[in-house]
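User: For my dataset I need records formatted as: sequence, then structure tokens, nothing else. Please produce one.
Assistant:
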Amino acid sequence: MQIKQLPEDFIKALPVLEEIEQAGYEAYFVGGSVRDHILGLPIHDVDIATSAYPEEIKEIFKRTVDTGIQHGTVTVLMGDDSYEITTFRTESGYQDYRRPDKVTFVRSLNDDLKRRDFTINALAVDRNGEVIDQFDGLTDLDHHVIRAVGKAEERFHEDALRMMRAVRFQAQLDFKIEEKTAQAIADNAPLLEKIAVERIREEFVKLMLSNSWQNGFSNFLDLGLSEYCPDFKGQKMELEELLDSKGQHFIDEDAVWSAIGYVLSLNHQEFNKLLRNWKVSNKTREASLNTLNLLHLFENQDYDLWNIYKLGIDNLPRTIQLCQMFLIEFDYTSLQTQIDQISIKNSHDLALTGKDICEILGVKPGPIIGKSMSQIERAVVEGNVSNNFDDLRHYLLSNQ
């Protein structure tokens, strides 16, 4: 197959390939960028593979950065752009089921493509647009199939995270996992425990934010991967409840975790523990905890403006989406109208400060200041007083 019109991202990088070839070496566009272009999807990163060794690349180009030179990767700076150039290599001795004990640089493109995870990622394109396809990756692209390169079990023993990548690609591309590859995932799922949770989380979140997340998530459960993720062991039936929300997509990572907390029926402490075990960011953890609290308030019809405000107005669109996902009904439009009328986002927006309260009441700083500020804040949120200095001063004096 020949790509008649290279994508703009490839065209911009052609001078890099040309300089490498002029020096007597081979160079190709490889991996996900090739796959995505053939599928008509946007290209995110342009990866280049070459027969030149790292030191040879550094001799060819004046401006380089040793990005991962021990694994053969050098970043070439050209104008305002940068390109990762990786030497063809073979790998061996994966004792931690993630990183090779030994990396050997080679001159053969075919040897390099052999070590890649899936056939649809084992494609290369030369500067003329000719596609090099040693493992029928183009056929698998046509048939929407995810198939391991060579023996699936060997690929997963080399890098157990590839099992998560398989279900992630399934969700992102809406492909099917080929039977032998799926069986190898089911057989080797326990190896996932060898992988750092941060890496698993990254793949899991990408899966859940994909358009066809239900497909990937279903296999994540059915092939046993969930059993080896933090706090998911023995929870397959509960997690399957997420699949009942047909056609629904999560608006962000916080929504994903909140939905999980909901179907697992976790209280605040249990949910906090799960989020910590998955090592989510503090920002995501706080938003997810508050969103789940809001979700429970709406489920129990036990909410008011002050509760919503304290748990974060910014969390409301996410909560409403999850309520719709879980068929929790209430008057969303009326509630949104009330929320829109709240004139402050937080206490810093108040037209009156703690120092002002000291002067108005003639008191020194102390507990009364915090209590008064909270009282005023709630009154503004509930629409009992306008957020301007004179009205707040009058309200304060009238409620002592």
